[in-house]
Amino acid sequence: MGVVGAGRVGPALAAALQLAGHRPVAASGVSDSSVRRAAVLLPDVPLVPPAQVMERADLVLLTVPDDALPGLVEGLVETGAVRPGQLLVHTSGRYGTKVLEPALRAGALPLALHPAMTFTGTPVDVQRLAGCSFGVTAPDELRLAAEALVIEMGGEPEWIAEEARPLYHAALALGANHLVTLVAESMELLRDAGVTAPDRMLGPLLGAALDNALRSGDAALTGPVARGDAGTVAAHVAELRKHAPGTVAGYLAMARATADRALAHGLLKPELAEDLLGVLAGGVTAPGGPDGPRGGTTDGAGE
């Protein structure tokens, strides 16, 4: 087994496969952080150029950024580095196996195995792979091989059609990557409000919200937007414009999306939606002001 691209993902997956009995023989990586990760997760595995990884390994993990993957595959093929029968596994969420077609024509066996997890580049990633879903795309004749590799890493295979890969990846980015931005902004605002331990305050709230959302979907929506508290939302917008103007656009966009979903699922009463949508359209104060009758609701105030 070899790894081309010793970023956060490759060494962790290789370490998991090593625990399952595969033998890592080479990895490529030139940055200081890549060298450190490889030393921790793949000790005694030599760091060599990609062509030498290809030469030494029968199973090769291509763990490079999405935009770099097509060029890498074409370059490896053009230089004759790809061998017939060699198993090539990329971990890009965006691509299926079509991106590996040049290598397929050279006789390689293509697999797309994308772990639906964020990686830290530390040994904790190997533990987190237990039960992790992998978005898997593979030719019919290689489905068993793909499934076996995922299971060996402790994961659960989820089959994704080639044409559905971009949508699949967009869904994961929307849920995971944007969540980090939302949480980071929320912690900054809490610090500005005088909270000394925003992580401790948010932990139980966000944990419960995530659990409820995974269990119940839109039925888990709570808070002033879902209730139609236009005055409260107007007060939020006013405070954000004053203290953190960079967050206003994101707040309004997410609030509009929340309102749409709450309306569609009968959670937001139509008679309350008009004032609310007016606030969200222009960030203006709702009738009655932020302290008016609709802004004084206290049920679920922590949400």
UniProtKB/TrEMBL annotation:
Residues 283-303 are annotated as: Disordered. InterPro entries: 6-PGluconate_DH-like_C_sf (IPR008927), DUF2520 (IPR018931), NAD(P)-bd_dom_sf (IPR036291), OxRdtase/DH_put_Rossmann_dom (IPR019665), TM1727-like_C_sf (IPR037108). It comes from Streptomyces aurantiacus JA 4570. This is Uncharacterized protein. Pfam families: DUF2520, Rossmann-like. Residues 132-258 form the DUF2520 domain. Residues 2-115 form the Putative oxidoreductase/dehydrogenase Rossmann-like domain. Residues 285-303 have a biased composition (Gly residues).
